[in-house]
Amino acid sequence: MKNGYELFVRPLLFSLDPETAHHVTVRLLGRAAHFDLALRALRLFQPSSKPKTLFGLSFPNPIGLAAGLDKNGVALPAWAALGFGFIEIGTVTAKAQLGNPKPRIFRLPEQQALINRLGFNNDGADAIAHRLAALRESGRWPAVPVGINIGKSRVTPLQQATEDYLYSFRMVRDFADYITLNVSSPNTPGLRELQEPEKLSELLYAIGNEAGTAPKPLVVKISPEVSGTQLKAILAVCEENGVSGIIATNTTLDHSPIPPQLDQAGGLSGAPLRDKSTALVREIAAQCKIPVIASGGIFDAQSAREKFQAGALLIQLYSGLVYRGPQLLREIMDRL
Ligand SMILES: Cc1cc2nc3c(=O)[nH]c(=O)nc-3n(C[C@H](O)[C@H](O)[C@H](O)COP(=O)(O)O)c2cc1C
To answer: Could you tell me the pTM of the whole model?
Structure first.
């Protein structure tokens, strides 16, 4: 049976082009974040709580908002009101950037999937830090953990990536309960090369060195395309550098489940990513002790359960939220 979002809201949003629908939704939630009455209405969707402690942080439930939905951190109180157990904003880059030419988000409803090639469109670390400072001052900072996902600015050459990440890290760390290093988006040329052990090691070392006396948990977000010896090497580097968590996975470049006439360049997310990401979660959990946050194709309680059974401790939603709406949180929590 369809839920209220699927019956009434999704048809409206899907009558708009995907990026406009995204923009309208985030803007409305950003507005709602300023009004107690609106936040109270959003709280009607809240799932039951099932607290969990991880990297020294308390999560009211294990379902998080995945990076990319609120790239600029404009609606934090609204996501918390909807019942997310944690919120990851970003990807934030050192320099503000417009991203790739439009259109750059594509819906594939038959496949319950999205393809995007946004390319880290965001307001940049300075503006986002400023916005987060204002939110904190307003007293509306959410009560759930907030992760800030950082990535490389497009104009920065790969050889200077570390400096670029360090800039964003310094700007936003005071607002983050944890920091995610995104080395896996397929839409910034060369970014995934930062998953190579030597480069990843350099980046993790530099960030770790910078962390000072009150280090924030560091999380690394990896692509579903890593496997075998490369995965082993990534995990070893993460362990050596005291990484607190791994997010598996980002979007995939494997478009084989997509009919050629519907295909687009970019990262594929949603149902076609489900098994691939679950398999990687299982492999990581079997190979090391670093906690895993699962992301990829979570659309219902069964797909969420699979991730936990594979060894994930937390999960994150993106495409599932686009197709199933905020009631998905309660559906998952009630049936887990
Ligand atoms: C439109 C769109 C934009 C995204 N932007 C980001 C991003 O900026 N940073 C990031 O780490 N992941 C980003 N992602 C990846 C998601 O966070 C998530 O890892 C991925 O979509 C798999 O989860 P899903 O199948 O539930 O969508 C984006 C995904 C989509 C669909």
So the answer is: 0.98
